[in-house]
Design goal:
17% of the residues lie in helices and 36% in strands. By secondary structure, the chain is an alpha+beta fold.
């Protein structure tokens, strides 16, 4: 029998519709050109509930042998597409189930695990399945891929925050009064130190240009190349959001900053003869989730009083500067100052459009600021799933320890007992921010590190809470408190550090207990927390090996609040927090409780025994006052938090911040400020105090000390990548995938060479430098940002990037999407179908589930598109032009024969 579909197919007519009018009326079925897909109404598929049950029971989501092709001789690509569709259907069913109401927490947890495992299964299948006529990739299909992870170039140019607003012919308020500072420029011929005193200008008006000319004259006379200039730093249009409407505000006057233009062979250092203590407060401000760094000048020095800075909002007397933290900061819980006057801030960060991507849902960032509020370094933990930072400590030698909790993998190659349970971690950095070592110590159940301190001989102590027994200890029930000690050693000066646990002490009651603060003073270690609802302070003595032994316990009564800090000063233990309890168990009360929740400062003996020297001071108004952080400096206590909120106030009601210094022995309030924020929202989060950290340089936006001109260039230092992270590259035409593994010395340049080599020359990788936007330079410690750009090499086919294993995926840390990199195919070439399924997909939270489901359904459509591309007519060339006469005659004869057969 002659196949009419074939004949008409020669002229571009679809075979499934050939002679439909005649064939359908007579019951004759057209020849099948493709096997029936699983999404067809004719296919028999299991119900979604059955799919979920099978997935939760551990059955694999993809099974090529489960489907039967009903077209003999069909391409093997169909079987693979149908198996892939089966896996995507199962993932979608799991996501739909996770989004239903009333699902138990235990089932939600199991669904999350199976979803993550199923996504990994699909990723592995796409990597191993060898399609012949189509190219299927998990991620995207693009001509050029750029890393969102970036590394700043070194720069000898420093641009300050705005120091003047308005006309260049007007006198600058920041330059008025006594402005005296020093500049030391180091060069090949040694240091040149200059004294700058603006009173030397005489009667000249202290405009921006006049002051710059005066300073540059001094620099020129000294024979150095470094010069000062000015930079207009107006940001974009100002807007305000009211409800659902965004209103454009009138533009500000021109804002101007100082610019220090150095050269590569000179260093620049600024000093000030008159200094005061500086107090840094990090706060949440406004209703849009923004965060700010506020710097205040104490009254304990001879520095001239600060003046309102250009562009600052909600200014209060004594405030030196106001700096926005980078986008992506979710919260800040701890900060501390180093001996060089720099400020280190521990922040939780979320994924966003910033320069540095993270590998999971959240991560911990350690950010370093100089005294002018300029961000000079950022270090990320590199958690593969989620992490939170709770504590920071700085040693006398500049080492920085950060502690918190981490979920999922952290260190590549190290197994995790339960990827869904939080463990405690501590990471130690050197003074330059290079990671020295990390320890993750977890119980079988959840635990978290909430305090960290340095002890003698470089030992690090971590305290926190755990729901079960920590390694080397025994659980007591509920949440328990714990203290762990660590020490680190090196085989030689160039070898990596190896950290080991010294000891573990677990303590508490049968109820829920916690450690909120810890301090080490000599051979004594103190912890403070809430145990079964009561404020409890513990004293441990440390033996020569660093192991703690309990020496004393003090119960101060019902907490009715929380503990914030503990420190030792002048042989006394100082405890801070907030409470509704007007009668904490301390005999002598300096200032009585004022109602609601009040801050408190308690003075205890070093052995925690009750005696006549104990003191208690309450601080607050009739409403609710909180203490978010506290620091002891030169025997005085600084506290910050929310000030006097009315009882029953909602989260959107006005919130004012406060900063107060008090004498813990007398209760005297020596210094205090209260302020509001954008949208009447100001919520202080942490504070830190720096001796001699404030000076007249703050008016000029200049830092004390050496001006930082750049940061590390190694990727494991300045991005979320960790040594051992990796991804894979495979040829576009098929073949073995080759791993690209990150090591501790990799830079953008070395990684570019690794990618080109792993792609066997299919890809071209270059290092590109970003342009600089107006006003952006003052926010960067180094120069412009550099990234990798990856394209198909001319005359080659391109390549496919595949994510690394769960817990060590380098693509996420680089901000690259898995998928195909190459040009669009020409006629007759294999088409690429990108599912756009990032490895970070999850089913946690309603909004996330909704977005995940949308991506999965879009991926299923991509599979259907690939199926249609496999249809014979999709690749068969269309014959154009006049049909030859002999063919017309043959077709007419065939049609006449068919008419006779069908009557």
């Amino acid at each position: 029998m002659i196949n009419n579909s074939y004949l008409l197919g020669l002229f571009g007519m679809p075979p499934d519709t050939a002679f439909n009018n005649g064939l359908s009326a007579t019951g004759v079925t057209a020849r099948k050109s493709q096997p029936t897909p699983p999404w067809s109404s004719a296919a028999t598929n299991p119900e979604p509930d059955a799919v979920v049950r099978a997935a939760l029971a551990g059955r694999r989501l993809i099974n090529e042998g489960a489907g039967r092709l009903d077209l003999p001789g069909a391409s093997a690509d169909y079987r693979k597409l149908f198996a892939l569709y089966q896996g995507l259907t199962a993932l979608t069913a799991l996501a739909d189930r996770a989004g239903q109401r009333g699902v138990a927490v235990s089932e939600q947890t199991l669904i999350g695990r199976r979803f993550a495992a199923g996504l990994s299964e699909i990723s592995g299948y796409l990597q191993s399945a060898e399609f012949r006529d189509v190219r299927m990739v998990q991620g995207v299909s693009t001509v050029t891929a750029k890393t969102t992870a970036a590394v700043a170039r070194d720069s000898t140019r420093l641009v300050t925050r705005p120091v003047h607003e308005g006309s260049l012919t007007a006198s600058v308020a920041a330059f008025e009064g006594e402005v005296v500072f020093g500049v030391t420029v180091g060069g090949p011929s040694g240091d040149k130190t200059l004294s700058i005193d603006l009173s030397d200008m005489g009667e000249d008006v202290r405009t921006l240009d006049n002051v710059i000319a005066h300073i540059n004259g001094k620099l020129a006379d000294a024979g150095v190349t470094t010069r000062l200039g000015r930079e207009q730093v107006n940001n974009g249009p100002r807007t305000m959001k009211i409800g659902d409407k965004t209103i454009t505000l009138p533009p500000r006057e021109d804002q101007w900053a100082l610019a220090v233009q150095g050269v590569s062979f000179e260093t620049v250092r600024f000093t000030a003869p008159l200094t005061s203590s500086a107090v840094y407060v990090v706060q949440a401000a406004g209703g849009a989730g923004g965060h700010e760094l506020l710097k205040f000048q104490s009254d304990d020095g001879a520095t001239p009083e600060p003046v309102p800075g250009a562009g600052q909002t909600h200014w209060v007397a004594g405030r030196v500067s106001q700096t926005a933290l980078p986008e992506g900061v979710e919260t800040v819980r701890a900060s501390a100052t180093a001996a060089d006057g720099s400020l280190w801030v521990v922040a939780d960060i979320a994924p966003g459009p910033g320069n540095q991507p993270i590998k999971g849902e959240s991560d911990v960032a350690l950010m370093k600021y100089d005294s002018s509020g300029r961000l000079v370094a950022t270090r990320m933990l590199g958690a593969s799933s989620a992490a939170s930072g709770y504590a920071i400590a700085i040693a006398a030698d500049g080492r920085v320890a950060v502690a918190g909790s981490v979920t999922g993998a952290l260190e590549p190659g190290k197994t995790v007992a339960d990827a869904d349970v939080a463990d405690s971690f501590v990471t130690v950095f050197d003074a330059a921010g290079e990671e020295l070592w990390t320890q993750r110590r977890g119980a079988r159940a959840a635990d978290e590190a909430t305090a960290v301190s340095f002890g003698a001989d470089g030992q690090v102590y971590v305290a926190g809470r755990s729901k079960s027994a920590m390694p080397g200890a025994s659980g007591l029930g509920g949440w328990d408190g714990y203290v762990q000690g660590f020490t680190a050693t090196q085989a030689h000066s160039l070898a990596p550090f190896t950290a080991v646990a010294l000891s573990t002490s677990q303590f508490g009651t049968a109820g829920d207990d916690s450690v909120k603060a810890m301090t080490v003073e000599g051979s004594s270690l103190y912890t403070a927390g809430v145990e079964s609802g009561r404020v409890v302070v513990r004293h441990y003595t440390l033996d020569p090996g660093g192991a703690p032994s309990l020496a004393g316990v003090r119960d101060l009564g019902l907490a009715s609040g929380d503990v914030t800090g503990i420190a030792v000063a002048d042989g006394r233990v100082l405890l801070t927090g907030a409470t509704r309890n007007p009668a904490l168990d301390i005999a002598t009360v300096n200032t009585a409780h004022s109602g609601g929740a009040d801050a408190y400062v308690a003075v205890l003996s070093s052995d925690l025994s009750a005696n006549a020297a104990d003191r208690l001071t309450y601080y607050g108004g009739a409403g609710d006052d909180s203490v978010s952080d506290a620091k002891v400096h030169e025997g005085k206590v600084w506290i910050t938090g929310l000030a006097d909120r009315p009882a029953g106030a909602g989260k959107d009601d006005p919130r004012n911040g406060y900063l107060t210094r008090l004498d813990p022995l007398t209760g005297a309030i020596e210094w205090t400020r209260t302020w509001s924020g954008d949208g009447q929202q100001a919520a202080p989060l942490s504070l830190a105090v720096a001796s001699a950290g404030a000076s007249v340089l703050d008016r000029l936006g200049l830092p004390q000390g050496l001006v930082a001109t750049g940061d590390s260039k190694t990727l494991t230092t300045v991005t979320a990548l960790r040594s051992g992270d990796r991804f894979y590259i495979s040829p576009a035409a098929g073949g073995r995938a080759r791993a690209v593994t990150i090591d501790a010395r990799d830079t953008l340049q070395t990684l570019a060479r690794k990618i080109e080599q792993a792609s066997l020359g299919q890809l071209k990788v270059t290092v590109l430098t970003d342009g600089m936007k107006a006003g952006e330079e003052s926010a960067l410690a180094g120069g412009r940002l550099q990234r990798l750009s990856i394209t198909q090499r001319d005359g080659r086919d391109g390549a496919i990037l595949t994510a690394g294993e769960t817990g060590r995926d380098a693509l996420a840390g680089l901000g690259l999407s898995p998928g195909f990199i190459g040009r669009k195919p020409g006629a007759g070439a294999i088409k690429t179908f990108a599912l756009d399924l990032p490895p970070s997909l999850s089913v946690v939270g309603p909004e996330v589930i909704k977005a995940t489901t949308e991506r999965l359904r879009a991926a299923m459509k991509v599979v259907r598109d690939a199926y249609r591309a496999l249809a014979p007519e999709s690749s068969k060339p269309v014959v154009k032009g006049e049909v030859p006469a002999y063919l017309k005659a043959q077709i007419a004869n065939y049609q006449a024969a068919l008419d006779r057969l069908t009557g």
